[in-house]
Amino acid sequence: MIAEMPSNQVWLITGGAGFLGFHLSNAFASRVGKILALDIAPFDPREFPKGTSFLPIDTRDKSGIERIFKENPVDVVIHAAAALPLAKKQVIHAVNVGGTRNILEAARAGGTRRVVFIGSTAVYGVPDKHPLFEDDPLIGVGSYGKTKIEGERLCGEYRERGLCVPVLRPKTFVGTGRLGVFQILYDWVESGCRIPMIGSGRNRYQLLEVDDLVEAIYLCGTAEERLVNDTFNVGAREFKTVQEDLEALCTMAQSGARPMATAAWMVKPALALFEGLGLSPLYKWVYGTADKDSFVSTEKIVQKLGWKPQYSNAQALIRSYQSYLENKAESDSATGLTHRVAWSQGILKFFKWALK
Prior knowledge:
Layout: E1 10-14, H1 19-28, E2 34-38, E3 53-55, H2 62-71, E4 76-79, H3 89-110, E5 114-118, H4 142-160, E6 167-170, E7 173-174, H5 181-190, E8 194-197, E9 208-209, H6 210-222, H7 225-228, E10 231-234, H8 242-253, E11 258-261, H9 264-276, H10 284-289, H11 299-305, H12 313-326, H13 328-331, H14 348-354
Parallel strand pairs: 1-2, 1-4, 2-3, 4-5, 5-6, 6-10, 7-9, 8-11
């Protein structure tokens, strides 16, 4: 199923400075010929493999994107650039829809053979049945989920124009270097706090280790077109309830932290209010699904591409937490809106103090 990789292959990774882009660049450097990493976020060249080319271009810059494909014989694009839910609605749409259109059109015009689109399981909304399959209805939550659906529709249009466009819908992925909203969890665990779960914690919430996602992306970039020109869910094969997975993390941390059930009917409206007032970094997709079952079937990518995930939910959380501890001094020095920096906790700091 995997094609032979010529040594002169050129792979372009959009969102290259981000959490996933960082992992993709380092994992693929020894497998493909050349990596082009595109992002408007700053790069630290020391974190990337030797020979990586950095392109500080915005995916919304149509002429800039076109120039890349005219100047470089790009073989495969990994389109991972996206505006996250904390951004303004106009920015989310411009990046997730407009930027995707620019990438697809420039790739098609430039003779690129395939574009791997990194979507999201947010396209499913908050359904009542599980597991979720790739042909289930798409009902996005918030601007992010809705624009990811629009992005997938664009991918379908370009498939019809002859471009090979594998679409991956990963569950929330964690791993080495993952901060963002998870930094808040890790900070509370390290501090020995009670960790409030929205609801009882008896629901099953699937995650994904970033190394497993990287392997799925590599398969989509190298397997035969007849197999990959499709849409695939990606998530951990082994996962338990939210309470059980959090208990595994807390047990490993040995800080005294422990999960705590809460009344979802009371907590959700409060978090919605805090979000509306700009006092909390937790957005609707996070708190709206936290007390629900949330898991997808990965049968399709396992059977068609031979994907073999290595890590369970608990293992993924523990690996990510250990990375947080190892790099804590650096991670505490800055906040922002990406997965590679801490998010400001806002009013949640008060609750952290109250729950110690």
